[in-house]
Amino acid sequence: MFDLLRQTALFIVTALAEIIGCYLPFLVLKQGKTAWLLVPAVVSLALFSWLLTMHPTAAGRTYAAYGGIYIAVALLWLRFVDGAALTRWDVAGACVALLGMTIIVVQPHA
C-alpha cells in the first residue's frame, strides 16, 4: 500500500510539472503573456522528464500508469486553474483512468 501511495504522489508531482510546462507556453501563445514564461516552462518540462525516470518499473509501464494520474490532475487543473466546472463524465472518466493506473501499479511482480 505504501508503494502505491509513494508512486501516486510521484505521479502527481510529475503531472504537475508536465502541465505547468505546457500551460506556460499556452499563456504566451494564446493569451499574449511575456515570452519569459518559456524559461520556467523549459525547466518544468525538464523536471517532468527527470521525474519519469524515478519510477521503478519499465518505461512503457510507467508511462501507461502515469496516464491515469495525468488525466485526474489535468481535470483538477481544469477546475481550479481554468475555473471550469467538471461534469459527471469528467469524474467518471478520471475514476476509470485511476482504476487502470492502480491495476498497472499493483500487479504482481515476478
Notes on the structure:
The chain has 110 residues and is mainly α. It has one domain. The chain contains four helices and no strands. α1 runs antiparallel to α2, α1 crosses α3 and α3 packs antiparallel against α4. The model has no long low-confidence stretch (mean pLDDT 92).
State the gist of this model.
78% of the residues lie in helices and 0% in strands.
Write a concise keyword list for the protein shown above.
110 residues; mainly alpha; 4 helices; flat
Bin the helical content. Answer: over 70%
Indicate the low-confidence ranges by residue numbers. Answer: none
**How many domains is the backbone divided into?**
1
Largest sheet: none
Helix/strand class: mainly alpha
Layout of strands and helices, then pairs:
Blueprint: H1 2-31, H2 38-52, H3 59-80, H4 88-106
